[in-house]
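Handoff note, outgoing to incoming analyst
You'll be picking up this chain. Sequence as last confirmed:
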Amino acid sequence: MLINPALGPQIYLGKIITTLTLKPDEPISADCGNCKRCVEACPTGALRTDCQLDAGKCISYLTMQHQNEISPDLAEKMGDRLFGCDECVLVCPYRKNAPICANKQFKFYPHRAKLNLNEILTLTNDEFEAEFADSVIRHSGLERLKRNAQICLANLG
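Most recent structure output, in case you need it:
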């Protein structure tokens, strides 16, 4: 998790490709002290106390990038998380005073906040493309989203 004390833990990273010589910023020495909220909040134990991440256990990785079947023990820990997790980010004290994003290009789609799991299982490729053309969900693909929906439904009983 990248944390900027002034901006918080939810930072959108980008990349600039240029031939210009740019002077890098000085590193920020953010110290979390004894805070281990993110480690304690991680449902799968992917965040470790030594500040390392086991990406193979991270729900965000599993739901967005992992291409194969998810092991039953990790699938159970996903709960109803269809796409991503962010538990570590949500409990970070640096999030409390972070400024609200003012960039109008970052849009919120309220109808995507609670997607119907059964409807996801019936989506066609065309419907998926139409609904998620402008979303990072599209990058993961329909089959992965359906896999995640099946796991969520199993976890919900």
